Amino acid sequence: MQGTVDGFRYGAVTPVAAYLMACLGGALGLRCIVRSLLDGQSWKPGWLALGAASIGCGIWTMHFIAMIGFEVEETRIRYDAGLTVLSLTVAIVVVGIGVFIVGYLGAGKGALTGAGVITGLGVAAMHYLGMAALRLDGSIRYDAFAVGLSVLIAIVAATAALWAAVTIRGFLTSLGASLIMGVAVSGMHYTGMAAVSVHLHDTTGGSWAGDSPTSLLLPMLLGPMVFLVLAGVVVMFDPLLVLGEGERGRSGAARRFGASSAVEQQPGADVSFAAPVGGRQPHRSREPYAHKW
Asked: How does pLDDT run across 153-209, given as a tens digit for each residue?
């Protein structure tokens, strides 16, 4: 018997919450990667690892928040704890491989393509490992075309995210890139879910035994969400990332240098006005105003 699959049990709540978590993880990850590139004196491996963990946790959290809204009306759903934890590990490790490749080799065509393919396949592996953790009184089947499309979306999204990480420097542009990344990752998830169909067993067996979504997913989601909050605190208190003081200081110095150069190059300019000595204003001649009432 064919099961009735519903991916939106709680309406728009789970898709919106999942999208926001994907955006949060992407934004923090991108800023951490940018931080490793802005300052050569910073501990680059640490910032890259924090960025990879943020993106991986964001993607994994997005997936399982969305899965809270997934149900098969004719049977209960449970999860295998081991495979669920493994999917989180795969997400962080494989995203980390891609992040370290572009972090050290840059956004060259070969490095970016290789890192994007590896990271995209890792994201897809995380998704389908999470699906393999499902335990229900039936068997899950997939449409091959939709699965292939979801993997392609994952690779394209990962490549675009890694390109943005090593190319975009501004805070607002990174924020915009994370919003687009959230759309791509969520699109990959729901494309993969569109491939799912469930064939129910005639009799109830023990194959679907496991932890219920509320007893397993909610406590497990707490850890990655706390990590993302802590990563956000680290990013928020780094002035080079949030305020852009390094770039702002350089641009301000350039403007001041340009202004002083303009004064010096102006024909007939009195340089003494631009550079007061001893903190006192230079004496201005009043001769041009003599005898004018």
From this structure: 999 988 888 888 778 767 777 778 888 888 888 989 999 999 898 888 765 544 444
The whole-angstrom separation of Cα 148 and Cα 121 is: 11
Using N-to-C axis directions, what is the helix angle for 44-68 and 81-105, rounded to 10°?
Answer: 140
> What are the CA-CA distances from residue 210 to residues 38, 89, 98 (Å)?
47, 20, 33
Beta bridge mates, 198: 140
Residue 153 parent element (H or E): helix 144-167
pLDDT digits (tens, 9 = 90+) for 38-59: 766 668 888 889 889 999 899 9
Geometric angle at alpha carbon 26, from 25 and 30, rounded to 5°:
120
Give the separation between CA 235 and CA 181, rounded to whole angstroms: 19
Q: Which of 233, 183, 232 is nearest to 62 (CA)?
A: 183
CB–CB of 18/66 below 8 Å? yes
